[in-house]
Amino acid sequence: MDAVQQESTEKAREQQTTWYGEPLGTLFRRLIADLGLNQARLAGVLGLSAPMLSQLMSGQRAKIGNPAVVQRVRALQDLAAEVRAGRVSAAEATGAMDDIRRTAGGNVLSPASTSTRSGPSAVPANPSKRVVREIQALLRSVADATEIQSAARVLGDSHPELAEFLRVYGVARTREAVEHYESHQG
């Protein structure tokens, strides 16, 4: 790899860390290990082509352009956490992944989607977290972290609440955004 390609890859991984909390290669490898997948199966569950998944993992591409795919990534992260904690078996995880492939990416703000899978492959959902991740995916699909921070600075004096919203949901960690969201619910 030449110096220009290496610099481009490092920049993409830095952007991924800003947008997704870590480089996508690291995140996807952990999902593969935790959920007993291979790259082709992960690509299928996410709704990506195998070459696109490979480009995201290697840093040849920085951003997941489709908010529905971002939601599926988040749903798989939640599922992997349940598997690691022993609350979901491997068989249940397989069924849940099929559900994620079919259903994740719908508008979680609509009443019909505030619950998740049911039956033996059910994974408990935090409705606040689902809403927050929908907002994050939407913001991050239209602007990167630098642009969101810039917009927040511009709005800071005249519209401080809107600036805070952009910073919290556009750049901060999901945990912080969930805390913010829950503190503003009546």
Structural class, please?
mainly alpha
- Overall, the morphology is flat
Biggest sheet layout: none
Total beta strand runs: 0
The arrangement of helices and strands along the chain is HHHHHHHHHH
Task: Supply Rg.
Answer: 17 Å
Beta-strand residue percentage = under 5%
- Low-pLDDT sequence parts: 106-124
If you average the pLDDT, what whole number results? Answer: 84
Mind explaining what this structure looks like?
It is a single chain. By secondary structure, this protein is mainly alpha-helical. The protein has helices at 3-20, 24-35, 39-46, 50-58, 67-84, 90-103, 127-142, 145-155, 160-170, 174-183. Helix 2 (24-35) crosses helix 4, helix 5 (67-84) packs antiparallel against helix 7 (127-142) and helix 8 (145-155) packs antiparallel against helix 9. InterPro entries: Lambda_DNA-bd_dom_sf.
Give me the secondary-structure topology:
Layout: H1 3-20, H2 24-35, H3 39-46, H4 50-58, H5 67-84, H6 90-103, H7 127-142, H8 145-155, H9 160-170, H10 174-183
Keywords: DNA-binding
Organism: Streptomyces chisholmiae
Region (Disordered): 109-128
State the gist of this model.
Keywords: DNA-binding. The chain is built from ten helices and no strands.
From the structure above, extract its key features.
DNA binding, 186 residues, mainly alpha, Lambda_DNA-bd_dom_sf, single chain
